[in-house]
Design brief:
about 700 residues, alpha/beta, 9-stranded mixed beta sheet, 22 helices, 9 strands, about 60% helix, globular
């Protein structure tokens, strides 16, 4: 439902004509785009050369490839320049407003298509659901819930006051539409700066006056209740469609952003972590460190932004990098992650054609950093190319492109190729039935084939579900043991402290151990589930192959059946959620001072930790495992659906032997058969390219 929201429209956002150097680093993505085009062309040929049933299967694959959109999630500190970097990555210096309301929790997704026109530019904004808003305004979000469990009335009072300000200003902006807007979706066939600022930006100031400044009455009108923004646009610098997902910063006192960002990271396979060179990793970034600690080093790229504000980047950057890696090592983070240094400010000055605007301290930093590069090829380049190079964007582009191709693109392409080869070879089998006609030795009717296939599908679904359930149950038990053991060890440590020190000295306990145990349990579960699913898919292929031969005899001897790929499972980022034990400040001290007696300490501590960890234990044990179970079953279902279409195509050719013989004698049929052969050859060539590329990485 879309409530009418008329907005004065500025001139449409325009795409700047790119210069060749702006595509530096994007070559891997460009090469992938060419392979994807080759596969798409082969699928189109396959659609034209197959019968109705096989055509449906080929069409599904082509639509799947058309819908494929690699996503990169950007996360990091507030004021790290993350949004400015996203603008630079998109090739538009002023695309997203960077003056973001610290109260909002908007995920902004840029869906970028290659091209220089204004085709399909539009925006969609999703508002919070009523229950999300209630959790925020009634309980103070995660922070309020945490403070309530810890018994910190002082903190709760502060949160309640802040909430009242937020609620009052939101209701004044929206009037009687306020409650109606919750859960709504607004769509526009365009977007411009005014529109974006109205939904995702409100500024950093909170006014105490009864009346809001005139410029804020419309600016940020819906920002408080907007949950996500999807922007569709074109970029002349992008060789293949991608999604750049800008998340809220995580060092936020309201902690509303944290859960939103955790959900975004869980759905992502590649993350760019944006840090500020002035505060690369500090104590306020523990939530960020915990978040990326659940990811593999290969899934994380760290971009240290704002080096333009350093006095001597060449001297300071090695020290900053060493500090980052030490912090990551100390906190079990991805210490081998690639770290890139740069300046989104410099990059956007190049994009805006305003390199003369780089002056003062920023200009000195630029010269210092450029001189340290010692790259002879830079000396003969125009100034704007030099600045673009030292901004770090080409290096980030290359790293991002390589990861996209390796982690997302090639696996997706391989999946499509193997399925397409099965369809094409199935069509060859159908053609062989056409040629041989009644000479084929078959004993099953198509009715019997359908029934047998349905029985196989049901048997394998049931078996897969049962085995998956066993693996999940084992994992859940291990996670529960880790949780119980952690609480018991922590409680024992607490009692030991009380016996030795009494309650005059504040005790604390690091929950990192619990997170590591849960991460380990999840890793074991993921390996077992992937291995189990692979084995089961192999059994399904064997049974399908037997059914093919029983149904169609020698006609299907050349058909190629491939075992479905098991997709990579999402990382357990939920364990990064902040809990009371992560705080060793006034909250904890206050809780400590209010509690008296050994038994009271132990009982209340146990209750506090159990309540604090309940949410992410549920997410890990129930929600995430349910998603994985669904993923495994859907892969199996897709495999059987594809082979059902192939069998229908083969079977439909048996009944008209004489007519098909006549077709086979013509040139058009020969062309069609040759076309299918060509499709298979093209697909295998592309698969070989992917294989060779994987060996060199």
């Amino acid at each position: 439902m879309n409530i009418e929201t008329p907005i004065e429209q500025n001139e449409p956002t325009t795409v700047q004509a790119p210069k060749a150097f702006l595509k530096e680093g994007l070559q891997p993505l460009q090469e992938f785009s060419l392979r994807a085009d080759m596969v798409e062309g082969a699928l189109s040929d396959l659609e034209e050369a197959t019968g109705a049933a096989a055509r449906r299967a080929a069409t599904r694959l082509r639509k799947e490839l058309d819908a494929f959109e690699p996503a990169i999630t950007f996360l990091g500190q507030v004021k790290s320049g993350k949004t400015t970097l996203v603008n630079a990555m998109a090739g538009w210096s002023d695309l997203l407003p960077s003056d973001v309301n610290p109260w909002t929790s908007v995920i902004t997704s840029l869906h970028i298509e290659p091209g220089s026109g204004q085709k399909d530019i539009g925006a969609r904004f999703q508002m919070m659901e009523e229950n999300e808003w209630d959790r925020l305004v009634q309980k103070g979000g995660r922070l309020g819930e945490l403070a309530g469990r810890a018994g910190s009335e002082g903190e709760l009072d502060k949160i309640r006051q802040q909430i009242e300000v937020l609620r009052d200003k939101s209701q004044r902006r929206l009037g009687r539409k306020f409650e109606l807007l919750l859960g709504q979706e607004h769509e526009y066939g365009y977007f411009d700066k005014n529109l974006l600022e109205r939904y995702i930006c409100i500024g950093d100031d909170f006014y105490d006056d009864d009346e809001l400044p005139a410029n804020l009455e419309e600016q940020g009108r819906f920002a408080d209740i907007t949950r996500s923004a999807d922007l569709h646009l074109s970029s002349a610098t992008t060789p293949y469609r991608i999604c750049l997902r800008d998340t809220p910063g995580v060092n936020d006192t309201f902690m509303m952003r944290e859960q939103v960002t955790i959900n975004a990271v869980r759905a992502s396979r590649l993350c760019v972590v944006v840090l500020s060179a002035h505060q690369a990793l500090t104590s306020v970034d523990m939530a960020l460190i915990r978040m990326i600690s659940s990811l593999q080093s290969r899934d994380v790229i760290i971009f240290v932004n704002r080096i333009d504000e350093l006095s001597e980047p060449a001297q300071q950057i090695p020290e900053i990098e060493a500090s980052i890696r030490q912090v990551l090592a100390d906190h079990k983070g991805p210490e081998d992650a690639q770290i890139i240094f740069g300046s989104a400010y410099w990059a956007n000055k190049v994009l805006a054609g305003d390199i003369k605007g780089i002056q003062g301290a920023s200009s000195k930093a630029l010269l210092n950093w450029a001189d340290s590069k010692n790259e002879t090829n830079l000396r003969d380049l125009p100034p704007e190319e030099i600045i673009w190079h030292v901004s770090g964007l080409p290096e980030l582009n290359r790293c991002m492109s390589e990861r996209i191709v390796e982690k997302l693109g090639n696996p997706q392409l391989h999946k499509v190729i193997t399925s397409a080869i099965s369809i094409a070879s199935g069509q060859q089998a159908a053609n062989k039935v056409r040629v041989e006609g009644e000479k084929s030795q078959v004993t099953m009717s198509m009715h019997e084939v359908r029934n047998a296939l349905n029985m196989l599908a049901e048997q394998h679904r049931a078996a897969l579900s049962e085995k998956t359930g066993e693996v999940i149950s084992s994992y859940q038990a291990r996670a529960d043991r880790a949780h119980i053991n952690f609480v018991e060890r922590a409680t024992h440590s607490l009692v030991s402290h009380l016996e030795a020190q009494g309650d005059s000295k504040v005790w604390s306990y690091d929950p990192t151990g619990l997170r590591m145990l849960l991460k380990s349990a999840y890793s074991v579960f993921a390996l077992r589930a992937q291995r189990m699913a692979k084995e089961h898919y192999e059994l399904a292929v064997v049974d399908i192959a037997e059914l093919y031969y029983k149904a169609f005899g020698a006609a299907v001897e050349g058909i190629e059946l491939n075992v479905p790929d098991v997709e990579e499972f999402p990382a357990p980022v939920t364990i990064a959620q902040t809990i009371a034990l992560d705080f060793n400040d006034s909250w904890w001290v206050s809780w400590w001072r209010r509690t008296r007696g050994y038994k009271a300490f132990a009982k209340q501590f146990h209750a506090l930790v159990s309540a604090e960890t309940e949410d992410f234990m549920t997410q890990l044990k129930t929600v995430q495992t349910a998603e994985i179970r669904k993923q495994l079953v859907e892969t199996l279902n897709a495999f059987f659906e594809q082979n059902r279409d192939i069998m229908i195509e083969i079977g439909s050719s048996k009944g008209d032997a004489e007519g098909m013989q006549q077709i086979c004698l013509g040139k058009e049929e020969a062309k069609r058969l040759a076309r299918i052969d060509g499709v298979i050859a093209d697909l295998k060539h592309c698969a070989a390219q992917i294989h060779l590329e994987g060996e060199t990485q």
